Amino acid sequence: DKQPLDLKDLPNTFLRRLWLLSEDARSTCCQTQLDPFNEDGKLPEEKLSSLEENAINPLDLVTSVFISADTFLQQEITVRMMQRKFAVPLVLPNADPEKPSQFLLWPLRGVLGQWRSHSRVTNGRVQNGNLASTPLPIISCIKLGRCSVSKSQVLNYVLTGPKSSKNIFIHKGMDGGQVPRRLSNGLVEIGWYLPTEDVDRDIYQAPFVISNLRGDASHHERCLKLVCQASSAVIIFCGDFKEKEKQLLESCKAMAKCLWLPKESVLPGSTLSVEKVANNLCEILKSWVPDNLKPVTLEAAAKLALDIGLNVDESPVCKNAMATVEEILKGLDEGSVEFQQKQLPLQGHLWHKLAELDKEESKHRKSEKETEPQLQEEKKDILPVNNEGSDVVQCIKTTQEEEQHLHNTENTTQHLESTPELSCSNEEQLYLEDSCEDAKALYSQSLESKTYNLGIEHFFREMGLIFELTRTSGSQNVLRLPKLAADLLLHGVPLELMDGDASNVPICWLGSIFAELNHSLHQEKLRTRVLTILGNHHARNAVVLSGLFGVELQEGWKRTSRGVYMAVLSLPDDCRKDLDYDLLLLIDVEGLGLASGGIETDMLIHDNMMATFAIGLSDVLLQNISPHAGEEIETTFKVMVSSLLRSKECGVFPICNLLVQDEGLDAVLQASQLRHVCKMLQTEDKGNVNNHYALNTSSTTFVKGPWPNMSLSETVDKQYTNDVLKLKETLFGALKRCSTKSEESDFIGRLSKVWDAVKSDSFSISLQNINMALGFSLLCTEFSQWEDGLLESMESWLMGATTKIIATKALDGTAQDALLSELKKEAQEEVKSEVHKLKSKAESYLMSEENLKMNSETFMPMLLSNMNKLQERASEEVMQKLETINESHCSLTQIEKFETSLEREQEFKLVALVETSKSTNILLQDHELEEEFESVWKKMCSSFDFRPSESDDISSSVADVLRQNLISRGLQKHMEKLNVVGQKQTSNFQVCDEHFGYRSRLKHMLEDNNKQQKLDAQKTANKIIEEYNKFSANKCSLAADFSESYITELLEMIENGLREKSLEIRSAFEVDLKIHLCNAACQDFQKLHDRFGKDKELLTYIYETKNKYVAEFIYQFRKRDQCQRVAQAFISMVIKPLVLAYINQPLGIQIAKEIENKAKQFQSPHAFHQSILEDLINEDCFESFEQYLLFYEDYRRTKINDTVVAHLADTTSLRKLKQQRLGEVVGQIAAAVSQTTEGASGVLSDTKPLLERVCLILEKDANINVEKESLNGPLFSITTDWDCFVKCLMELLATMHLGLSQDFNQNVDVLEVLNDLSILPQDHLLQIVRGCDKRCPLCKAPCDKVELDHEIHSSLLHRPKGILPRDICSPFHLSSSETSKDSHAEFMICKNLPLQDTNWSDVSDDLNSQKANNYWRYCLCLLFMKLAKFPEDWTKITKEEALDGLKEVFGRKECN
Predict the structure, then answer these.
(1) pLDDT tens track for 84-97
(2) Which of 457, 511, 606, 825 is the most exposed place for a label (fewest CB within 10 A)?
(3) Stated pTM of the model
(4) Residue ranges covered by each domain of the chain
C-alpha cells in the first residue's frame, strides 16, 4: 500500500485500497516530487498555486474511476464502497458537459443489504434486499446558491451520529475536499441507512436511502428534476434566499407534487452550527421515517431518468440478458424441486449413482481385480443417450457474444440470490453466530427432499456434466462448452473442480477446459501455482479469497452447497517473470463440516475426499479457522489433519499458512495444533523429489473481519487493512518460494493423479478413518514440546561452551582451533544423546495410544525422519553458533582493541586541539574537527593490526568480472587471453603492431613520422596506468576489504580513458590493457584482501559506526572546550580577583608595621614631627620649607609616601609575603573544589550550582569573601561531566598559581604594587603620626598633643615672626629690637595666645623654649641670609646647636 507519487497513480491506488476496505481509499494525497531547480526561484504564492494545480478533489477521483470502468467493475466498486460506508454514484456526470449524465442502475443491482426494522410488522425478522429493486424511502438533499453550512457534513452526522468520525459523503473538511471540483459537479450520490434493531446503536427505526446532489442545483436542471420527482422527500439547503432561489423552490414544489413537505421542516441554518443543524434534521427525519414517507425503487427512478433525458447504463445486451434470465427462471415460481428436475436433470440421484460406480471401479483397479460386468452395465444404463441440457444451458451454449455470457451469468446469480425461497432463510446466518445446528438441519432437510438451494454453480455443473457424459456423441454445441467455460473462467467466473454432493470430479471436462486455456493464452504449457483455502463452512472461504484477491467464488455458506471451486488469476507480464508462473489458481472448499444426523458418516467421507483432493492440488494451503464453528470445530479439525496426512502420503505437501479470524481460545488452540501438525508433515524428505519445496515452519495471521460482501451494517475493524496486507505478503512470499518443476506444472496431470488416489481410497489412513487425527495432533504437539526441550538443552550447553571460548585468548589461533574442534565433537555427541532420548519417548508414546499404535508403521518413519532432521538441524545450528561465538569473540576483542587505540589517539588529538583553542581563542568549526578526526582515523586504520585472511585468491573473481565486461562489449573472441589473469607481470605494457589494423599501419607507413601512431597509443596507455596507480593507492588506503566493484570501476576508467583520445586501434589494444591492469590489480588488491580478510565484521562495524565516532569526537571536543572556556571564565572572573584580594588585603598593614619597626620617627607624632624638622635642616631646601609651612598635611603625606617607597624598593619581604599568601589561598580553593567533587563524580551535572557551592565553602571554611554576582547568567550554567570540568579547573588554577608566582618574583614598579593594596601603608602610618589636626591660630604650628580627648591645644615649637607663611610669601625685615637677645616676646608673636584662643595654652618663657628658638633662628639665617641682616649671634648658631635645641624640646616632652 504505497503512497502514490503522481495523479496518474491515484485510480489504481483507489482500487487497491478499496479492495482492502481501507478508510483512506478516497484520499488524493500524493508524494509529489518537486523540482528544486525550478521551485526555488518561485514565490510562496506561486508554489501554492503549483501544488493546487497538481491536486484533485476526492469526488473527482471517484467520478473519473466510475467513468473509466465498465459496468462489471462499477458493480464491484459499488459493493465495496457501500461496505466501507462510502456514498456511491447514482447519477454520473458526463465528461462532456454538453451531453446528458448517466443513471447507474446496474452497479446497484449487486448490492445486497440486510436489516432489522423496529416495526411490529416485521417482528424483528431479518430482511434483505437488492438496492436497485427494494422499495425504500428516498430522501434527497440539494443546495440552492451559496450556503454557510456544509451539506455533506450535515448528512454525515445525520446518517452516523455526531459522535461518529465516519465520512460517508466527502466534504470540505477532508483532505482534498477544499480543492475545486472539475468533474463531479452534478454528481448524485446515495448512502444507505440500515437499522439493526439495536436501540443503543440505531438512530432511526427503518431503512432509507439518502441522495446528495453535488454543486448548485440551479446549474443542473435535469438532475434537479429527477431528484424532485423520484424522491420521497427533498431537503433544500439555501443560503441567500433571493428571488432566484424562491423561483427554483417553487419549481421544485411543482415538480414534486406528490411529496409531503410539512411546514415545520424549515430550519434557520444560517444561525446554527453544523452539529445543531444535523441534530434538528435528525429529529425531523425520525418523525418522517418510517410511516410518513412513500417508498420508491431505484428501478422506477431509472425510468424517470430516461423520461427526463438522462442516459441509463443498462445496455440492450444487459436488458436482453435480463429478459432471457427472467424467461428461463420462470419455472422457479412453481417450486425449486420441480425446476431442478426439469432444468438440471443430470444432477439427481443418477449422477450420484454414477459417482459411486466410478469409485467402485477404481477400487477394483487398485486391488488389481477385473471390473465386474455388472458395474459396466449399470454405468451404461445411467449414461444419457442424447441430453444436451436445460434451457439455461442451451442458452449458454447458443449465445455467441462474450458480454452476453457475462450478463447472463451475473443476472442469473443476482436473480437466484434475491429469490426469497432460495436466500432469505440462510441470509439470517449473518446475524446468527451460533447457527451451526440451523445449517445442519437445513442441509439435512434439503437432502431428504432431494432439493438444493440453487446457485449459478449448479447450472455450470450441469453444463460440465453434459460435456462429461455426452462428449463422444454430442453435437457441435456440446464441444463448444470447454471454450465457453475457459473464457468465463478468465473473466472471473469460477469453475467447479469437484461436486461435493456427489463427490465426483469430471476429469474430461476439466482437461478440455485447461486445454482451451493453453490455447487462449497462446502457451503450450501453462506455469501454474495453486493456492487453496480450507476451512469450516462457517469460515466464509469464498469471502476471504474475494477480500484477498478480488475474485468471486461460490459462497456455499449461504446455500449450504458443497464442492471444490476454482478461480483463475492471469498474472501481468511484469509479475510472471518475478513470480515464475503464469496463472494463479485459487481453490475454495465449500461445505466442509455440514454433516448431520444419520448421514454423518457419508458426509464425513465426502468431507475427507474434498479436503484431501484440494490439499493434494495445492502449492500453498491457507487453513481458515472460523470464529463461529461451534461444536463442529473438532470434526473439521479431524478432517483437516487426516487430509494432511493423506496428502503427505501422496508425496506432495503444500506450504501451510493459518488464518485465524478470531483470537478466542478455541480458535487459538486449533491454530496451535494445526501449526504443530504442519510442522511435523512439512519436514523435507530429500529422498522424495516431489516434496522439494516443503518448509519447516508455517505462518499464522490474525485478521478480524468483516470481509467483503458481508452485511453492510457491520463495521470494518481498523486493523483489517494492515492485517490483510500482511496476509497477502505472506501468501505471495510462500508462492514465490514454490520452485515447481516443469513436470509438475501440468495441473490436470496432478489433478488426475490425486483424484485417482482419492476415489480409490489408496491411503494407509482410509477416508472413513478420522479418529486417529486427534491422537496424531496431540503427538505433534508433544513432539514440538520435546523439540523445544532439546533446543533449550542445547542452548544451555552452548552457554557453557561460550564461557570456555571467552576464557581463551582471543587471537591465539592454535588454541582457538583446538578448542573449537573439541567443542564441535562434544556438541555432536550431546545432540545425538538428546535425540536418542527423544526416540525412546516417541516409541513409548506410540505404544501407549491405541489409535496411534495401530498406525505406528505410518507414524514411526515420519517421527524418525523428523528426529533425523532435527538432529541434523540442531547439530548444524550448534556448529554455526560455535563458529559465530568464536568469531564474535575474536571480532569483539579486535573491536575493543581498535576502540582503545582510537580512544588513545583521539585523546592526544583532543588535548592538542583544546590547547590550540585555548591559546588562540578561536572556536573550531565542525568541518575542521571532522578533518582532524579523519587524520586520526587514517592513522589508526593504516597502523592497526588486522587479522590476515587464509589463502583466498582473488584472481578468479577478477577474471569473472573481466569476462562479463568483455561479453557485454562483444569481445568474446579474446576470451583465451584471460588465462594469464592472476599471473605475475615482469614487464611494462608495450604497444605493438597487432594493436593496429592493417589499413592503419599502411597509412602511417607512408607518412614521414610513421612512429607517431605508436607514441600516441603508448602515451594514452601510460596516462591510464598513472590513473590506475592513483586509484589503487586510494583504495588501498581505505580500511576496507577488496570488492569486485573495484574491478568494475577500473574497467570503466579504462574505457573512459580510451574514449577521450581518438585512436585508430583494434580491440586487442583495449583487451591487453585491461588484462595488464587487472593483473596489477590482482597483486595490489590481494595484499589488501590478505590484510582485511578475517576482520570483515570489524571493518563493517567500524565503518557503520564511524559517524558515531566522529560525533563523539566532536562532542568530546565541544565539551572539553566548553569546560575549558567556562573554567577559564570562572578563574578570571571569580577566582583570580579573589586570590589577589586575599593576597593584597593584609599587605598594607604588614608594610606599615615593618616601617614602624624599622623607622623610629613613626613611633609617635612627636618623633615624626621632630624627624620632619630635622630633615628640613638637613635638606637645606627652600621649597621643602615652603611646603612644610604652607601645606603641612601634604608635606607630611609626601614624607610618609617617600618612606614607604624607599622601604619597598630596598626590601624583598613583600615577595615572600605574597608567595605565602598565594600558596595559602590556592590550597584553600583546591580543597573547596575537592570537597564539591564528592557526590558529583562521574555524573553529568550543571556546573553553576556546583561552582556556587565552591564559593560557599570558601566563605564558610576559609572566611574568604567571594563576589558571586559574576555567576549570574547562562555563561556558567552548562551540563557536563564534573570530573572533566574539575580537571580543567585545577589545571587552570595551577596555571594561575604559577603565573602569579612568576609575576611576584619579577621587579615591578612600587607604585603599581601600592595601587593594588586594599589598605595603603601610608594610611596606616599616617594614623600613627597624625596626632591632633588643630593648628595654632597665629603661627599655624601644629598641635603636638597626642591624647585624643584633650581640650587645650599646645605646640612644642611655635613659629616665630619672619618664618610665618605670610612672611615667607613676601620680603621682610627685622628691627633691631626684634633681633635683640632680650626680645623673645617680640620675636614670638604667639605670646599671650590664650587671649586670642582660649583652647590654646600660652607659649613658655623658660630658657629651654628660648633655646629652642635657635632652631628657627638658624633656619632664618639659612634661608634669608642674602635677603636680610641678622644678629651676629644668630649667624653663629650651628646646625648641631639647632638640632640640639630641637631635640631638647621634643626630648623634654617625651620625658614628660
Answers:
(1) 889 999 999 988 88
(2) 825
(3) 0.65
(4) 84-314, 315-418+455-497+504-519, 525-709+719-769, 792-906, 954-960+970-977+1028-1104, 1108-1330, 1335-1456
